[in-house]
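Lecture notes, unit on binding sites. The following record was shown on slide 14. It pairs a sequence with manganese (II) ion.
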Amino acid sequence: MKNIKLVSRETKEQTIIAIGALKIGQDFALIAGPCSIESEEQMYATALAVKEAGANMLRGGAFKPRTSPYAFQGLGLKGLKILEKVGKELGLPVVTEVLDTRDVSWVCEYVDVLQIGARNMQNFSLLKEVGRVDKPVLLKRGMYSTLSEWLNCAEYILNEGNQNVILCERGIRTFETYTRNTLDLSAVPAIKELSHLPIIVDPTHGTGKISLIPPMSLAAVVAGADGLIIEVHNNPEVALSDKDQALRPEEFARLAQQVFQLKKYMGTLQ
Ligand code: PEP
Ligand code: MN
């Protein structure tokens, strides 16, 4: 691993990122919410359900990186205002994706964590820009990226001054087409060997299949993930993006229970 200095485990044991009461890298982060922010009603209903199930952070996209330019692109500022309001009402910190360097500084006014999506992992201008703000960054693994390329992208952010990066494994492209991506869970213990940064897992984009999200979430916990980020929608049938991979609130609640039980059991092994 050449050129990896600031993110290397050799420089530090473990990064712990405090976001309100939540300490990522120490506490288990259970981040949930819809793919896209669609309305205040949708956001509130979903957020209330995930909070009651035990989620400790809320997700929601206001700028969506869609394959087609004709697909729903997100509500932008209107969506961020909804996300901020619902997060505050329920006492949940919020995370959203930024796509453009021009949006970074003003989006920071509405959210607790900035997400860099898989498609932008190697957008070096964007990495430098989020490296200069004082909000933690959730850096997703690019779908064609090696661990070395990914860690170098985190290095870009730390090199600009921002030390608070959370890595997120969200699946890579392989020859397999049954799943949306191939969730590379070996990345979790591998990153733990190489870096002090916390790493969470996104089994939603990692599999693209409702039935595979619970087992892969549990597998991620066993692999040592510092958290999970899962798409949940109060009414998936009418979701404006990623409707086929959104868990219903009751499915998420069941999974959250299993995650907590598994964490408790793992505690007894240490
Ligand atoms: C998302 O989290 O909504 C998203 C677009 O994820 P990714 O960048 O991993 O595809
Ligand atoms: Mn999505």
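Take-home: The pocket of phosphoenolpyruvate (ligand 1) is lined by residues 35, 61, 65, 117-119, 140, 170, 202, 205 (CB under 6 Å).
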